Amino acid sequence: xxxxxxxxxxxxxxxxxxxxxxxxxxGAGEVEIEVLFCGVCxxxxxxxxxxxxxxxxxxxxxxxxxGRVTSVGHGVTRHAVGDLVGVGxxxxxxxxxxxxxxxxxxxxxxxxSWLATYNxxxxxRAMAPTGRNMYLADNTYGGYSTVIVVKEDFVLKIxxxxxxxxxxxxxxxxxxxxxxMKHWGVKAGDHVGIIGFGGLGDMAIKxxxxxxxxxxxxxxxxxxxxxxxxxGARPVLESDKDALQGLANSFDFMLSTIPEKHDINPFIPLLxxxxxxxxxxxxxxxxxxNNMAQAVHRKSVAGSLIGSIxxxxxxxxxxxxxxxxxxxxxxxxxxxxxxxRDIEKGKSRYRYVIDMASLKQEMGAAAADxxxx
Length: 373
Known about the structure:
The chain is α/β, with parallel strands linked by helices.
């Protein structure tokens, strides 16, 4: 067993606190990874607070993980000790359903869907059909920890040219915005609208610009206008009805990155005929959609869920090739509860990334204190 430390929540109403625990050593086809950096996603906050009503406690978040391989199990060929690697939102899937066979594990139709990097199976074991292969994990602990063990084919290679702390948010925020733009065919010359300017919106703008699109970003914060212009986007206040009316029927593609329930109806009229608005930020029911606004010009509203393992590797390589990445603020593990409050208030610019050296120092200090007792 591997002795580890992480930060976890034990209830929906408490903050994250240190938790000592153990992980199994790398078995056949698995790699052990020393965690160096882990991004902080808004979904971590939703999960810790049980806002999706599916949290398993203790809840140790973290699915934007970059680290160094320290050990490999029997038969591992894709990764070697010393490699810089990443782990995103998934650490396994059923591997046999149609989506998995098509290398779209993020849409796994197996009995438990895909296995989340933290918070265990996507569907509780008791709800799965009997007689099917079940995951061994009732709960999984994520990247807010010193070490993680993952099956090698769910581990990504961090390309040269991407600093590890920059690469971390690409494993969720990057692929979550890249996947729908790829699927719906965003191309040079398209007018792309990004709704929401947080961690996902920041990456969406940068990816769309490199794809050659003309980008407009809709935000509630006028103080972000300068940041938007600096990365090549035209900023518009979501509440500016005159500006929205002037953009009617002008967008080839729109992406909503707002991480909570919101109203997309004001944006549907902005789409061109036969174009699509995709929601990636919110996983809860939204305000009802006015179908008249869709029907009169055959517009579509769709959803997209993170991205496949192949797409995640693709977007990492794409970012390295074009020299782009998220704007980040590196923080110590011990300040995570303050970071959560800042994110909820819209103060982060634009992704917090935890430096796990701070957690290892805490673990070392705790061990030293124990020896003196």
